[in-house]
Structure formats: C-alpha cells, structure tokens
Amino acid sequence: MRYSAFEILKQGLTGNRGWKPVWRDPVPKDEYDIVIIGGGGHGLSTAYYLAKEHGLRNIAVLEKGFIGGGNVGRNTTIVRANYFLPGNSEFYSHSLKMWEGLESDLNYNVMHSQRGLINLFHSDGQRDAFARRGNAMINQGDDAVLLDREGVRRHLPYLDFDNVRFPIYGGLLHPRGGTARHDAVAWGYARGADSRGVDLIQNCEVTGIDISGGRVTGVQTTRGAIRASKVGIVVAGRSGQVAAMAGMRLPIESHVLQAFVTEGLKPVIDHVVSFGMGHFYISQSDKGGLVFGGDLDFYASYAARGNLPMKEHVMEAAMTLMPVIGRARVLRSWGGIMDMTPDGSPIIDKTPVDGLYLDAGWCYGGFKAVPGSGFSFAHLIATDRHHAPAARFRLDRFRSGAGLMDEEGTGSQHNLH
Amino acid sequence: MRLPCPCCGDRDIREFTYRGAALARPGEGAGIDRWDDYLHLRDNPAGAVRDLWYHGGGCGAWLVVERDTVTHAVDGARLAAEGL
Ligand SMILES: Cc1cc2nc3c(=O)[nH]c(=O)nc-3n(C[C@H](O)[C@H](O)[C@H](O)COP(=O)(O)OP(=O)(O)OC[C@H]3O[C@@H](n4cnc5c(N)ncnc54)[C@H](O)[C@@H]3O)c2cc1C
Ligand SMILES: [Zn+2]
C-alpha cells in the first residue's frame, strides 16, 4: 500500500479497517543468496539497497530480537555531516544527502527535521578549531556558519552565556543538521525491503557461521541452519561476538552509552545544541521531551544500562549550560551498546573469509550513517568493490597504521573516543 | 559500581580510570601481528573479563579487576604490580 494524504482520508472515512501489517512474518527458507545478520538500521538499509539498487531478491535479514529493538531505537537521533577528516567527511556528506531524499524514496515519514545543529565554543583556540572544521565542511560541499556570541544568543537565548568556567564565545552552526524519528527509520527501511521481497526474520539469533575451504557457506540459527553464499555481519555492539563465530577477533571493544528524556514540555529548544566541553548535547523531540546525553561510561560493558556517576555528570553539564533545565523532570534513562574502534571511525569491508562481509564500529554515531552505510555496504556485497564514499573504512588500517581516522585527535587507541 | 582496591577497600568507580583489557605487553622484537593483537584486537567478551583500572583518586595503584560485562558484578581486584 502506498501511503498518501488521500489514503489517510480514505481509511479515516472507512473506519481505518484497511491498514495492513507493514511487513510479512516469513518462515526462514533453507537457502538464500545473501544473509544479513542483524535487523538494526544498518542491516535493514543494506537489504533495502541490495534489492533496490542491485536488483537482488533472494535475501534474508536475521534478527535475534525484534526489528528496531537495538540501537536504532535507542539513540538520540542526531543527523549531521560535520566531520573533518577525509574518509569520514565524504561518507557522512553522502549519507546526509541520502537523508534529504529518504522520505520520498521510502514513501515513509521518518520525520527528518533539519532544524540546525550548533556546536558551542568557549575560547579563542576553540574558535579557530571550529573555523577550520567549518571550512572543511564547506570544502566538502556541506554547510557551516561561524556564529559569534551574539549570533548564538539570537538562536539560543536560554543558555548561560557568562558561566565562569565555560563562557560562550560562539558556535558553529550546521544548518542542515538535525534529527529524525529513529523507529520510523527502522520501520521505513523494513517496509521498503519487505516490499521488494526481502525476508525479515525476527526472533532468529545467529549462533554459528559455516565456513568451508575459506568460503562462507551459511549460518546456524535458533531457527535452523540457513545456507548462503554471501553473509553480511551488521550487529553493532555485538560485532565482536558474531565475528568470533567466524574465528575473527576485531579491533572493537563494546561500551555502554546512556541517554535521557524529560517529560513533555512546550517548545523551548529549536535546534540541536552540542556542548562539547561538558560532553553534553540536547534537542527536543516532536512530542516535547528534552532528549539529551553525554559521553560513554568508559568501561567495556554489554549491559544496556549505565552507572550513576555518568548520569550525575550529564545532569551537571545540563545545569551548567542551561540552568532553565532544572525545572524539568527526567522521565527515563537508558543505555545502548556501542561498538567502539580504536580511532572512533567505522569499518565497511571484506573479511579474510570469502563471501563474509563486515559493517561495524559505528561507535556512538551510527544513526546518521544508516542510509549511507546501507548503500555502501550493499555495493560492496553486490559488486565486491568498495563504494567510493566508504572506501577508507578498512579493517586493516589499525594493523598497518595507514588511513587511521582519529576525528577527535586523541590517539588511535581503545578507550580514548 | 564499586571496585575493591586491595589497598583502600571498596571505593566508588569515580575514583578510577579505566584502561582496558589486562594484556601482557609484547616483548622486544615482537612482530607486527603481536603488536596488532595487543593494541587493537579484542576478545570483547559478554561475561567475565579481567581489565586494568588506575586508582587515581586513591592510592595510585594499577589494579587488575575481575568483573562481568553483562551484570556489572565485580568479583575481585588485585595489584597489577603482582603480574597480569
Ligand atoms: C544512547 C545512544 C545515543 C546515540 N545517539 C546517536 C545520535 O544522536 N546520532 C547518531 O548518529 N548515532 C547515535 N547513536 C549510535 C547509533 O544508535 C548506532 O551507531 C547505530 O544504531 C548502530 O547500528 P544499527 O542501527 O544497525 O544497530 P542495532 O539497531 O543495534 O542493530 C544491530 C542488530 O543486530 C542484532 N543482533 C546482534 N547479534 C545478533 C545475532 N547473533 N543474530 C541475529 N541478530 C543479532 C541485534 O539484536 C540488533 O537488533 C547512539 C547510540 C546510543 C546507544
Ligand atoms: Zn587504592
């Protein structure tokens, strides 16, 4: 069914009895051409583009839980293209352009809202660094505007501009940055893939990867064995464990990242505001909740919840930046498992096993990458060639030291990003 | 989370800095694979781990902590100086 204003009217007038389930619930077949492990944002978009761009049909996505139950439904939904280093810069630029056409392509409202993102700075040195980043963004073809203090005040009058430790000197505005509805992105891609014949198989955990003579031949699952000549691993925080089924160790450590939402409030924050010095960022959802978060808890973890010290740190940063937030009440907090790489940048590559491909290491920034990653990973799986915007996301860059993308400049080492 | 420092007793996690998996540093002349292993590749288990924490807000010792990455339960800690 194609969604449209006319369809809503028609359904409304006929008691809303005509809406159908958005995707099928197929029984897994014994064999597929391509199996994608992981039904998160990246797995679903990969399957969608394999079908749409490469005309492939015999594809299954195997998800151990339910569609949208992983990080794709747990993130704080920020979509941006304000990277600095070659590799990241062209990839996120490509991904943002895809976001801009996503809703009409999927015929699905993902509530992509380019409300503008402002990164604050608090010293002359930081201003120079942000001017340089803004120039890099413009060079890449994206948009950036350097705001002075009064420029920031016009957009964000509710901030504390005269904080003693972090007075606000200005900000880098990325007008095309913004947010989207995370669940809708998963559902929209799921619907698009299903309608092109992809089998989305939920409650199906992959427990083994079959390899014979250096080639992948299929997977073992909780719903039986499935043969496939190509297999893609796209399991975010579980990457290390699934790769281990193929005898691989990855340059990945899984960490927990927390997020928070307040009760619904009237509109107060019109942008995405990032306060890097406090490891804090915030936006307001369309429902009215203030959605905010901070840094990793900074220890390896598979618990989808964090500890209290980071909660306290995030609340303190919030109060430092915008004391007005003290009147709001926190409704919920949660955590998700991040696949952290040493340099903080992702991996889209082949593996030493023929027919086995890896899309991983998205750290805490993989939501905005969902369209671009799926597109590039599908290209790699279908053609065995790297897609240009993602060509630098190589697995061997850590071993060789060539092509590292340490965006934060803290060093390419675990636990520094 | 509290970590049981052998010198200071049970202390709040805020007093510690995390380093990562407790791995033996390669010896002189180790090849690139050995260094890649040590610096980058991780077992990254969901379950029992042994990792290094620095008690900067206390005695200043490096500890090897045994804990569980799924439950966050901490089973014990000893001085890294006594060997990994
Ligand atoms: C609190 C938080 C805030 C974030 N904020 C942002 C943000 O503002 N902007 C941004 O760009 N990014 C953000 N991220 C990062 C982003 O959410 C992730 O990088 C991205 O969602 C990961 O890709 P995914 O959607 O495919 O992951 P997931 O949705 O986690 O998908 C992986 C799937 O694989 C499945 N799986 C695992 N093992 C198996 C198995 N053995 N067999 C079958 N299936 C398996 C899992 O069940 C899961 O559904 C945030 C993350 C968190 C936790
Ligand atoms: Zn101590």
CA radius of gyration of chain B is 14 Å
Spatial extent as radius of gyration of chain A: 22 Å
- Into which percentage range does the β-strand content of chain A fall? 25-35%
| Biggest sheet statistics of chain A | 8 strands, mixed
Number of H/I helices of chain B: 1
SSE string of chain B, helices as H and strands as E: EEEHEEE
Principal-axis shape of chain A equals: globular
The CATH superfamily of chain B is identified as Folate-binding superfamily
Descriptive notes:
The complex is a heterodimer of chains A (417) and B (84). Chain A is of the alpha/beta class. Chain A is 28% helix and 26% strand. Chain A has helices at 5-13, 41-54, 88-100, 102-106, 124-139, 149-155, 182-195, 239-244, 308-321, 370-383, 397-400, and strands spanning 31-37, 59-62, 78-79, 117-121, 145-148, 170-174, 178-179, 199-201, 206-212, 215-221, 224-233, 253-264, 272-275, 280-284, 289-300, 330-340, 347-350, 356-360. In chain A, strands 1, 2, 8, 9, 10, 11, 17 and 18 form an eight-stranded mixed sheet that branches. In chain A, β1, α2 and β2 form a beta-alpha-beta unit. The mean pLDDT of chain A is 97. By secondary structure, chain B is mainly beta. Chain B has a single domain (2-24, 43-82), classed as 2-Layer Sandwich (Folate-binding fold). Chain B has one helix and six strands, in the order βββαβββ. Chain B has one helix spanning 32-39; strands spanning 2-5, 9-12, 17-21, 48-54, 62-68, 74-79. In chain B, the strands form two sheets. Chain B has a four-stranded antiparallel sheet, with no helix packed on it. A two-stranded antiparallel sheet of chain B has the order 1-2. In chain B, a hairpin with a 3-residue loop joins β1 and β2. Chain B starts with a strand and ends in a 5-residue tail after the last strand. The mean pLDDT of chain B is 96. The interface between A and B is medium-sized, with 24 and 25 residues. Flavin-adenine dinucleotide is lined by residues 37-43, 62-65, 69-72, 74-78, 205-206, 234-236, 238, 242, 257-259, 293, 336, 362, 364-368 of chain A.
